[in-house]
Every structure is written in structure tokens, then in C-alpha cells.
Amino acid sequence: MIRVLASLLLLACCGGASAVYDSWYELKLGGVRAGWAHGTEHIQGDLRTVSSTESMRIARGPSEVSVTATTVWVDHLDGTPVSMHWTQDMGGVPVETTWTFQPGEVVIEVAQGGRVSTATQPTPRIGWLTPAASLEVLRRKASAGADEVQFHTLMPDLGLTPVKQTMRRIGQGVLESPRGVIEVSTWSVSIEGLPVELETWFSPDFHPVKTIMNAPFGVLESTLTDRATARGASGGPAPELFTSLFVRPTGEAESLATARRVFLRLTTQDGSPLELPASGAQTIAGERDTGVLLLVEREASMIPAAGGVAPACAESSAMINASDAQVESFARSAIAGLPADASPGTRAEALRRAVRAWITDKGLETAFASASETVRNRVGDCSEHGVLLAAALRAIGIPSRVASGLVWMDGVDAFGWHMWTQAFIDGQWIDLDATLPTPFSAGHVLVATSTLKDGDGQRQLMSMLGLLGNLDIEVVRVDR
After folding, report:
1. Is residue 97 domain-resident?
2. Comparing C-alpha atoms, which of 88, 128, 140, 77 is closest to residue 110?
3. In the prediction, which pLDDT does 260 show?
4. Is 465 a residue whose pLDDT tops 80?
5. Pair 206, 297 in one domain
């Protein structure tokens, strides 16, 4: 969960290019100072380079995690893309992704800790604009009197599928900032695939002055300032985004972790539609406009996977690097004592137990480490367990993906946001949680799955974001 949440928080803070500039922003979440952002644009000859860096710190209970992302776009002055370089540091070894745009294709290179993978994808069929070109279109059309502007663009978080961005003018006025009083126009920003909207205040030359994102878990605010203020000491604790997102249910919830099956009714607090997947142990027992009735069974995988399994569930990626020599060695060692004819289910369970035992430093200090990193440092929380198990499964030929949602925690009597693994066995998705002493529990709520494919894995998890701080859960029935 922390990687997806951090990605959205950083995405909301990104300023676009409008002219050659060098601007600093202060970031706040829920009124608490959370970090800083820095944007620059440089032009040399026919090439334009636009860079943005966002750095945030988030408290996860007693632990604090720092998350930093830097994106560098290079295009020609006519908007023709040249490259995009994206670095994400989630508290471990940074992951660097480079897109190089060539005639008819995009070369994707992903590097982490000296390990590099390269792939190609066809050029997106939908016409799209670089960040600099999109701001130019907005400036030109708004200056001509348009109150709504639409275009497609690419975002590294969401991969090489263009997303539609809709800008609507909602006001004019002035805004006070450390740089003085600035005339501004206010625009709402809707991004396809993101469950929250932004509002941005632009200066007359369409330089972002302020951006806010109103999300159920808090208001994220980015405000133009000077470097000293942006990079200054916080003077207080980081915004807390772990225990504050726990969901305390109504109904009898005692010992859900040991139940045979559980019926749960989920509704959104803001009345928005709720769509949840039916996969693995989870089926949809009933639906209503703003909620669903779920049935979760501890030892059942009841739904055949329609259409089989996506190729990405068997391939290596930067996060799920099944081809890493140490991941392969770990996986082979974990099943070495099994009979040669052991079933895929038996081998998968052996890997689950091995991952649980292998990660010995079980803390919250790492936001989201890759399988390659985790197999070496043996550190992590639920996301590291989930990713390492997914990589080990792929290493022995079992397709896998990560699953995200909530899990019941007996110690605090609440549901907390969580990640685990699904293995594709005998035509069905089987849930496996390497953080537990048993393979799985009926106290899980599945919200989204992802292959964590390079350049596109984040898109599959975005459905979670509108639910953080926006869910009510009723325990309807528990069978033991």
C-alpha cells in the first residue's frame, strides 16, 4: 500500500513546465509539513529538459519512511519526445526507469542495484503530449478563452498507456505566497484512472503556484516558496499514514484470523460506487449501489481465472525479479527437500514458509523493496514478503502476482492495509500470505491485484487510493 499511496502523493505535487524556470514548493499533508518539491526547465538548442523532484516523509506507526521521486523528460521544442528517466527511492535501493522513444517503439530500461533489464513496447497508438507540451496546449487554449482543456499524456507511475487529463477553469483571483501576491486562475484537474481530483492555481504564464488534492485520508498541498523554506527543517513529526488508516468494523469481529469463512459488508463513506474483485478466496455474495457483501473462505479458491493468466505473471520485472540468481537459489533451496513429484500447491506452500522464515527483520522502515533487495538484506514488512514470494514462485515456474487490500489484526481489533501473494495453480488463483504462520486467513479483503510489470504495474493498484480512509466494514457472519 505504501508504494501506491506515495506515488499518488508525489504525482499530485508535480508541477508542469510553462517557461524556463527553477521553482521550489513546500509539501503539507493534513496541515503537517511533509516534504518538498523542485521543478526546473532548461532549453539547449532544439532540446528541452524538464525535471521534477518530490521528496516526502511518512510515519508508519513508530517508524518513518522517506520517499523521493525524480522525473526528467527530454523533448524537442515541437513536443516530439526523446526520453523519460524516472528514479524512485522508497527507502531501499532506488529503481531507475528509462524510456527512450524511437520510431515505432519505446525502449524500456529498468535498473536497480547494478541489475538492468531491457524491453521494447510499440509506440502508444493514442496521440499524447509530454508534460511541457501539455502545459503549452493549456496556456494557448486558456488564453483564447477556453474553460475546459483535454489532452492525453504519459505518467511513469501509470506506464506507457496514455491517460486523459481534463482541466476545467473554476475561478480567478489572487493568491498570497512567499513570493508576494500573485494573480491566479484556478483549475480542477481530473486524471483518468485516479480516483481523486486536484485543484491547481496557475500564474498568468501558467506556472503552478499551488496544488491541492482532497483525498479521504487528508489534504495534500503543494505551495510555491523559496528553496530555503522548502528544504528547511520540518520541526515536527511526519504525517502518520498507517494506524490512521485502520478500519474498525461493526459487528462481531473476534478472532476473524482463525475463522473458516466470513461474510463482510463493505460500503464507502462518501457514497461512491464500490467495485471489488472476485478472485482466490473472495467472492461477491451481494451488491448495492455503494457497497458489496463479500464472502471470504480460508481454504478455498472458488473462481477459475477467466481467460487464463497474463504473460506478465510469469515474467521477471524490476520488483519481481524471478531471474535474479539469488532469488532462484533461494527458491530452489526452499523446495529441495520435497519429493520430485510434489504438487504445485505443495511447492508453493514450501516457498511461503521459506519467505516467512527468511525475512528476519520485520519492520516498517522500508516503503517497498524489490525481491532482489529483500532476498539479500532479509528486511521488510508485508509488501516485501509478498514480492519475494511472487518472485520465488515465478522462479520455479508458478505464475504469480501480488494482492493488496486489508487484513484483520487481532492485536488491535481492526483491519489494516496489507499486501500478500496469489499463485496461479490448476487454473485458479490461490491466496498465500507469507506474513502469517498459516497459509491464509478469512480475515482478508482483496481490493486489487498487480503483476508489478515494468512500466505498468502501478496502474493496477490505483483502485485502492479512493478507498484509503473511505471504507466502512460490517462483520455480518463468522463461521468457525
Report:
1. yes
2. 88
3. 92
4. no
5. no
